[in-house]
Amino acid sequence: MGKVKIGLVQMSCVKDKQQNLEKAIKEVRNAAKKGAQIVCLQELFTSLYFCDVEDYENFKLAEAIPGPSTNALCDVAKELNVVIIASLFEKRTEGLYHNTTAVIDADGSYLGKYRKMHIPDDPAFYEKFYFTPGDLGYKTFQTKYAKIGVLICWDQWYPEASRITALMGAEIMFYPTAIGWATSQDEDTNKEQYDAWQTIQRSHAVANGVHVVSVNRVGFEQDGAMKFWGGSFVANPHGKLLYLASHDDEETTVVEVDTKATDHYRTHWPFLRDRRIDSYAPINKRFIDEE
Q1: What is the Rg, in whole angstroms, of the alpha carbon atoms belonging to the chain?
Q2: Any alpha helices (H) in the chain, and if so which ranges?
Q3: pLDDT tens across 14-54, in order?
Q4: Where in this chain does the record put each CN hydrolase domain (predicted)?
Q5: Is there a contact between 195 and 239 (Cβ–Cβ < 8 Å)?
Q6: Is pTM beyond 0.70 here?
Q7: Is the peptide bond prior to 120 cis by the omega test (within 30 degrees of 0)?
Q8: pLDDT over 80 (residue 1)
Q9: Edge to edge, what strands does the sheet with 172-177 contain?
């Protein structure tokens, strides 16, 4: 496609769902004023990160997709002529919920959804209590400005997910995410965790020869026990950082990427071409042992 201007909205959230939606729409408008053509919002941006506890009341935060939030965002996308990537808590039917990202094209049309495939269950990240693993497989979406791939947060750690998405033709890979530090941790641990998170995603850019965009929330939640670390970034197809957000501040930033760079990087560093696909069959095993 060529040059595309990407808007990243790194923001903090409050308890009120409507207030978060209105804030996100305001920042989409802000990004559009700065020239953004595709705007990515962070994971579960309409609420605080509720998965720190197992509470049945939190299921009330879920909604249908398409539904109220996507309807509002479709109107905004059409008005501003921007693509919007919107991560939401999906109620599929009674008792069945997903962590889902909707993609809305620049004409306001709803293109479809991706349901998070990898679901964590860690202290303060009890997502298996809320979310059914995705059953739509990996997805790409042909938008007005580029063919994009969307994965969600915990998917970030899996090269298999990024590889399949790239093989489906994604020109830019987006990761809406919500991850942070326990405020009881020391700074060395914090740095190690953030560096691992950023490094694995930059490696997806290198291995697949595509731009990677990661958009994280920021701010203190869980009564101050969790600091979402922000640090949103854009990496080029060789893993070079084109933009890096702070760990502390809300930011709405626009970064221009050139999808034509993929051909240059894949030609000069032909990792995609040189894959030995005939040797990869064992990857579908849980572990390779005598059993």
Answers
A1: 18
A2: 17-33, 68-80, 159-167, 187-208, 261-268
A3: 999 999 999 999 999 999 999 999 999 999 999 999 999 99
A4: 4-259
A5: no
A6: yes
A7: no
A8: no
A9: 140-142, 147-150, 172-177, 211-216, 233-235, 241-244
